[in-house]
Amino acid sequence: MERDTSNGESAAGDGHPITISGAVYVKGLGVHAPSDVSFYTGKACGKVTADVGVDDEKGTRGTVTFEIWADGTKGASTGTLTNAMLAQPVSADISGAQVIRLIVTDAGDGNDSDHAEWADARVSC
Protein backbone atom coordinates (compact mmCIF):
# COMPACT_ATOMS: atom_id res chain seq x y z
CA MET A 1 0.00 0.00 0.00
CA GLU A 2 1.18 3.50 -0.79
CA ARG A 3 -0.25 6.67 0.74
CA ASP A 4 -1.17 9.48 -1.67
CA THR A 5 0.43 7.70 -4.65
CA SER A 6 -0.25 4.69 -6.84
CA ASN A 7 1.09 1.30 -5.81
CA GLY A 8 4.02 1.57 -8.23
CA GLU A 9 6.00 -1.65 -8.25
CA SER A 10 7.65 -3.68 -5.48
CA ALA A 11 9.67 -1.02 -3.65
CA ALA A 12 8.18 1.22 -0.97
CA GLY A 13 7.67 4.79 -2.17
CA ASP A 14 7.94 3.99 -5.89
CA GLY A 15 4.37 5.05 -6.77
CA HIS A 16 3.25 7.84 -9.08
CA PRO A 17 0.40 10.35 -8.74
CA ILE A 18 -2.96 8.59 -8.37
CA THR A 19 -4.57 8.79 -11.81
CA ILE A 20 -7.86 7.21 -12.90
CA SER A 21 -9.02 7.78 -16.50
CA GLY A 22 -6.85 10.89 -16.72
CA ALA A 23 -8.15 12.43 -13.48
CA VAL A 24 -5.32 13.07 -10.99
CA TYR A 25 -5.98 12.80 -7.25
CA VAL A 26 -3.71 14.31 -4.62
CA LYS A 27 -4.91 12.09 -1.76
CA GLY A 28 -5.73 8.40 -1.47
CA LEU A 29 -4.38 4.90 -1.08
CA GLY A 30 -2.71 2.95 -3.88
CA VAL A 31 -2.81 -0.84 -3.57
CA HIS A 32 -2.33 -3.98 -5.65
CA ALA A 33 -5.02 -6.66 -5.69
CA PRO A 34 -5.60 -8.60 -3.61
CA SER A 35 -5.39 -6.21 -0.70
CA ASP A 36 -7.02 -5.67 2.68
CA VAL A 37 -6.41 -2.38 4.49
CA SER A 38 -7.91 -2.52 7.98
CA PHE A 39 -8.14 0.19 10.59
CA TYR A 40 -9.66 0.66 14.02
CA THR A 41 -12.25 3.42 14.48
CA GLY A 42 -13.47 2.57 17.99
CA LYS A 43 -17.10 3.11 17.00
CA ALA A 44 -16.35 6.83 16.55
CA CYS A 45 -16.96 7.20 12.81
CA GLY A 46 -20.00 7.23 10.58
CA LYS A 47 -19.07 6.95 6.92
CA VAL A 48 -16.33 5.94 4.46
CA THR A 49 -16.25 7.48 0.97
CA ALA A 50 -13.85 7.27 -1.98
CA ASP A 51 -13.59 7.43 -5.74
CA VAL A 52 -12.23 4.04 -6.82
CA GLY A 53 -10.73 2.59 -9.97
CA VAL A 54 -7.76 1.04 -11.75
CA ASP A 55 -4.73 3.32 -11.98
CA ASP A 56 -3.71 4.55 -15.43
CA GLU A 57 -0.09 3.45 -14.88
CA LYS A 58 -0.94 -0.06 -16.15
CA GLY A 59 -2.36 1.03 -19.50
CA THR A 60 -5.39 -0.97 -20.63
CA ARG A 61 -4.77 -3.86 -18.23
CA GLY A 62 -6.22 -4.54 -14.81
CA THR A 63 -9.58 -5.62 -13.41
CA VAL A 64 -10.56 -5.25 -9.76
CA THR A 65 -13.47 -5.06 -7.35
CA PHE A 66 -13.69 -2.82 -4.27
CA GLU A 67 -15.46 -3.62 -0.99
CA ILE A 68 -15.96 -1.75 2.28
CA TRP A 69 -16.54 -3.90 5.37
CA ALA A 70 -17.51 -2.79 8.89
CA ASP A 71 -17.09 -5.32 11.71
CA GLY A 72 -17.49 -8.27 9.33
CA THR A 73 -20.46 -6.88 7.41
CA LYS A 74 -20.09 -5.80 3.80
CA GLY A 75 -21.32 -2.22 3.50
CA ALA A 76 -20.53 -1.56 -0.16
CA SER A 77 -19.06 -3.16 -3.28
CA THR A 78 -18.47 -2.03 -6.82
CA GLY A 79 -18.54 -5.06 -9.04
CA THR A 80 -15.76 -5.42 -11.61
CA LEU A 81 -13.95 -2.24 -12.68
CA THR A 82 -11.45 -1.98 -15.54
CA ASN A 83 -8.89 0.60 -16.60
CA ALA A 84 -11.27 1.77 -19.34
CA MET A 85 -13.76 3.00 -16.72
CA LEU A 86 -14.01 6.34 -14.96
CA ALA A 87 -13.56 6.44 -11.19
CA GLN A 88 -16.63 5.15 -9.39
CA PRO A 89 -17.88 6.69 -6.15
CA VAL A 90 -18.28 4.24 -3.29
CA SER A 91 -19.47 4.86 0.26
CA ALA A 92 -20.63 2.91 3.27
CA ASP A 93 -22.26 3.64 6.60
CA ILE A 94 -19.86 2.46 9.29
CA SER A 95 -21.73 3.84 12.30
CA GLY A 96 -20.95 1.86 15.44
CA ALA A 97 -18.22 -0.25 13.81
CA GLN A 98 -14.87 -0.80 15.47
CA VAL A 99 -12.87 -2.20 12.55
CA ILE A 100 -13.16 -1.05 8.93
CA ARG A 101 -11.69 -3.05 6.04
CA LEU A 102 -11.04 -1.68 2.54
CA ILE A 103 -10.75 -4.76 0.33
CA VAL A 104 -9.71 -5.03 -3.31
CA THR A 105 -10.00 -8.35 -5.19
CA ASP A 106 -8.60 -9.42 -8.55
CA ALA A 107 -12.15 -9.78 -9.97
CA GLY A 108 -11.54 -13.50 -10.38
CA ASP A 109 -9.14 -13.31 -13.32
CA GLY A 110 -5.73 -13.16 -11.63
CA ASN A 111 -3.96 -10.09 -10.32
CA ASP A 112 -1.76 -9.08 -13.27
CA SER A 113 -1.65 -5.26 -13.49
CA ASP A 114 -4.35 -4.84 -10.80
CA HIS A 115 -3.20 -1.46 -9.43
CA ALA A 116 -6.22 -0.18 -7.55
CA GLU A 117 -6.87 3.27 -6.14
CA TRP A 118 -8.93 4.47 -3.19
CA ALA A 119 -8.80 8.07 -4.43
CA ASP A 120 -9.88 10.87 -2.08
CA ALA A 121 -10.65 8.21 0.56
CA ARG A 122 -12.26 9.78 3.62
CA VAL A 123 -13.53 8.55 6.95
CA SER A 124 -16.08 10.87 8.58
CA CYS A 125 -15.83 10.84 12.37
Automatic annotation (TrEMBL):
In this chain the Glycosyl hydrolase family 98 putative carbohydrate-binding module domain maps to 2-125
Q: Out of the domains of life, which is the source? A: Bacteria
The protein's name is Glycosyl hydrolase family 98 putative carbohydrate-binding module domain-containing protein
Q: What organism, scientifically named, is this protein from?
A: Streptomyces fodineus
